[in-house]
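dude i think i finally got it to work??
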Amino acid sequence: MSYDKEFWDNYAKENESRYNEEFAKFIRDLAVSLRCTSVLEIGCGTGIDLRLFPDTLEVHGVDLNDLALCMAKESNPKHNFKKESITKLPFEDSSIDFIFTHKFLNCLSEDDLNKGVSEMYRVAKKYIANCEVYEKSESKNDDIFKGRNMLKKWSNYKVKIISDVDMHEDIEPEKIRFTLVKKLEKV
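look at this
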């Protein structure tokens, strides 16, 4: 995975301006309503999507940017933040109830995305939610932000599709697709 430190440091510094309280409430309420006790955001940045999670949940975030993680730890001291890649998550198999991404998978190369989907599946105990810019037939362009069809990605895994819809603009004003899958028990 190529990593442009300067770009992502600037992104982290501007991240507070991207805080979307409606999305943060939505994702928190979803995890709570699904009776999850542990949550992981991959590509958590400065932790803005995790700040409304109650202390009663075990909350984790992973990111590769040191500055963003420092800011996340400062503003969310009770949550657990680690510098790790989606391609090698530092968690046991089936150990996290609810894993989510928010406009993160759009930044990955196809190879890293495929490895990341495999890692999310490995670590997930119950649910995985991807809230990503959607593109039905993913283009192979070299833009840093690529549209993704996560329903297509999950078709190769033993999951039940719970939802695959465009998010309502009151929750996420950008054109974001919400895909929620439930990991099925191994037979």
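The CA atoms of residues 158 and 185 lie 8 Å apart.
im so relieved honestly
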